[in-house]
Amino acid sequence: MKQPNRKRKLNMDSKERLDQDGCLEQAEEEKKPKDSTTPLSHVPSAAAQGAWSWEWYLKEQKAVAAPVELFSKDQSFPEHENGFQIGMRLEGVDPRHPSVFCVLSVAEVCGYRLRLHFDGYL
Question: What is the 3-state secondary structure (H, E, C) of the chain?
Fold first, then answer.
């Protein structure tokens, strides 16, 4: 169901104006960012700059990295990939009905992460 187009009133002190198509358009001075930051269109992409690295980021931001001691062992990434492959089957609990067990298929493997598909999900 399509909602009707709603028109917006223009105030006399508004810096918006109608373009040729009758659409609202902001005045040029309002299109510019209000602070002195560089617009995103002028920021070079990561591909143009090369690979992104923490060292470069910390140096650019004049920041100091948090000490490794602040991170617990369970927050670190596993050092090896899991042994699952696409198409393998698992048994898992239905998240909506915890008393029901379902057959799951491995749909995607990305490092230590798995994307699982519920086979025959109701």
Answer: CCCCCCCCCCCCCCCCEECCCCCEECCHHHHCCCCCCCCHHHCCCHHHHCCCCHHHHHHHHCCCCCCHHHCCHHHCCCCCCCCCCCCCEEEEECCCCCCCEEEEEEEEEECCEEEEEECCCC
